[in-house]
Amino acid sequence: MKKFLIILLSFVLSAAAVNSHATAAPGTATTTIMVFGDSLSAGYGLPQDAGWVSLLKRRLQTQSQAYLINNSVSGETAHGGRKRIEQALKTYRPDIVIVELGGNDGLRGASIEAIRNDLEAIIEACLRNKATVLLAGMQLPPNYGITYTQKFQDIYPQLAKLHGVRLVPFLLDGFGDKREFFQADGIHPNAQAQAKIVENVWKILRTMLASAPNRLPAAPVAAKSG
């Protein structure tokens, strides 16, 4: 009986690990997408599965064969992402990486050069690993000063042009200046805003999926996911 329970538990844990990451049937050739972001992508302050990444996952399940991994961490910075991107790429071998970072660096007043260098290092790591990049542009509140906010905003299109990667000009486009779409902290979008973020991303991502290479996803492993 004890042996039976051990085998059963092993099976349950294995199934849970697979289901926590996969959106396509095992053994099915698919495009692997990894969202590599901060709290905006980790679903901070939202009910489970209400974030834009979860909504995108459901759309992919109905409209394409895609295996989506949310490798986002609340509070993450571009500097922190730079340190963990290589391991993430090695673990999941994504075809497409949606890079949504830099906002926390800007809110902390990090130097424009440092933010740019960290984001560039992430992009270059993805390209070295033959992953296509979708860079999500961000903007800062006006109280950070016009010079700093403009230089920060310019980082994203400049890097996209330099490295030939795709760009979502502003992840929060269409509602970024509307208080009713944000949580009490005024920084994190609420549940009502998540569908708008999906549309901003989908406009670019759907064209990338049409030309993305297909391959089997890496075997699921235990990993931290936001």
Give the SSE map:
Elements: H1 2-19, E1 31-37, H2 39-42, H3 52-63, E2 66-70, H4 78-92, E3 96-100, H5 103-107, H6 112-128, E4 132-136, H7 146-163, E5 166-168, H8 191-211
Parallel strand pairs: 1-2, 1-3, 3-4, 4-5
How does this model look, in words?
It is a single chain. With 226 residues, the protein is α/β, with parallel strands linked by helices. The protein has helices at 2-19, 39-42, 52-63, 78-92, 103-107, 112-128, 146-163, 191-211, and strands at residues 31-37, 66-70, 96-100, 132-136, 166-168. The protein has a five-stranded parallel beta sheet with strand order 2-1-3-4-5, sandwiched between helices. α3 (52-63) packs across α8 (191-211) and α6 runs parallel beside α7 (146-163). The chain starts with a helix and ends in a 15-residue tail after the last helix.
Label this structure with key terms.
226 residues, alpha/beta, 5-stranded parallel β-sheet, 49% helix, globular, disordered N terminus
Say how many strands there are: 5
**SSE ordering:** HEHHEHEHHEHEH
State the share of residues found in helices, binned by percent. 40-55%
What kind of sheet is the major sheet?
A: 5 strands, parallel
Structural class estimated from helices and strands: alpha/beta
What fraction strand? 5-15%
Mean pLDDT: 86
Principal-axes geometry comes out as globular
Distance between the amino and carboxyl termini: 37 Å
Q: Rg, please?
A: 18 Å
Question: What is the number of helices?
Answer: 8
